[in-house]
Amino acid sequence: MHIRWTKTGEADVAYLDGDRIGVLSTIPSAPGSRPDGVVASGGSMKIKVAQCRKKAEHGDRFLIEGRLIDTRREVREEIAKLVAPSAPAAPPEDAPPAARERMALPPKH
Hints:
The protein has one domain. Helices cover about 15% and strands about 40% of the residues. It has two helices and six strands, in the order E-E-E-E-E-E-H-H. It has helices spanning about 75-85, 95-100; strands at about 5, 10-15, 20-25, 35-40, 45-55, 60-70. Strands 1-2-3-6-5-4 form a six-stranded antiparallel barrel.
């Protein structure tokens, strides 16, 4: 797991595009909420949630999408390194266009 939530649960980073982030979490988080957690180095991070959906294809995990807030540059860089070597073959179909472009995928239809 890449992130351990402060209250409970954990998450893996699915994609990172600037300050936009998508994580596959063991717990849900409502839109507008600001779940916080720590990465492996102990650095803290927080996400302002835009949307959260249950993803059965990922073992009933929740895809939480939003933007990083109150997160230091060093932690952002650590998150970026976590995504790069194990990036998925494709971001979710409804991921931000910039995330799809970064992976040179055709636009969704």
